[in-house]
Amino acid sequence: MLDISPNISIPDNEIEFSAIRSQGAGGQNVNKVSTAIHLRFDIINSSLPESDKQRLLDMRDQRINKEGVLVIKAQQFRTQEKNREDALERLKVILQSAATVQKTRRPTKPTKGSQKRRVDGKVQRGKTKALRGKVAE
Description:
Number of helices: 3
Low-confidence stretches: none
CATH topology: Double Stranded RNA Binding Domain
Helix content: 25-40%
Number of strands: 5
Oligomer: single chain
Strand content: 15-25%
Distance between the termini: 88 Å
Shape: elongated
Number of domains: 1
Order of helices and strands: EEEEHEHH
CATH architecture: 2-Layer Sandwich
Largest sheet: 3 strands, antiparallel
Radius of gyration: 28 Å
């Protein structure tokens, strides 16, 4: 059971793991041992609330494919267990970010004082530039 928040948790049967061979430089075991982990999480068929599912699908994350499956590849560590924990932690972070609702931004107006200071500064700058003209004889 992966706990996302106090009221949201993901059962283990909704998360699919597969071991693959890691990329990059390695030693003697690089072609023999499958230490990297592919974590697959089907967003559409999961037990998440509908609002969270929709926010996840709207994230435009390249790890979410067209079928609505989130794929995380963990290969940072040398052992399968650590890579599995890393993948689960990254899934948890993604799901927590989708669970938080962003506050809608309300545009604010500049205050009268700030508008006056802005215009006064522009007028002062204009006066300075006006003095740069040719001297009339």
